Amino acid sequence: MQDAVESIAYRDSFGDFNQLVEQVLGTQSNDDFKGFEEKHARLIYRTCLTTQGVQRLYLLKSEYESSGGRKPDIALLDIRGGDTRVRYNYLIELKYLNADATASRIKSKRKEAYDQMQEYLALGEFEHDTRLKGMICVVVKDKIKCFEEVPRQ
After folding, report:
1. Model confidence over 28-44: pLDDT tens digits?
2. Are 61 and 90 a contacting pair, CB within 8 Å?
3. CB of 61 within 8 A of CB of 77?
4. Are 87 and 9 in contact (CB under 8 A)?
5. Where are the alpha helices (DSSP H) in 1-153?
6. pLDDT digits (tens, 9 = 90+) for 65-81
7. Contact, 128 vs 138, CB < 8 A?
């Protein structure tokens, strides 16, 4: 897992990192999940990025305020003059649902995240960044049920 952030930066692969997030979520007790919300899942996601050394390769922004007041949950932006092997920058929109979420509720949250990401990618500050990818992540209790790239329109 040491190179999970390098897998993101150099190989455009979130697999190892998302496994780590699920492992951390899986250590939580049922009591820990009482009142658990999206902001808590976002905090765990950011903390995992930080403990994996994301700051070596990216500027990590939470609730990154972009033009029009829109706020992607997480932005990973390359450090200017940093490692030239970093392939992409990322915006990540994260949604969280409790364990009792139905398939239709999961599908609805996925669509909500997808639509939001398309709006972010169309914003003036991002629309011409060819190295920027939009990703969506839907977490249900302690499992990532959906993690996918949103193509630009």
Report:
1. 999 999 999 999 999 99
2. no
3. yes
4. yes
5. 4-11, 15-26, 38-51, 103-122
6. 777 777 899 999 988 77
7. no
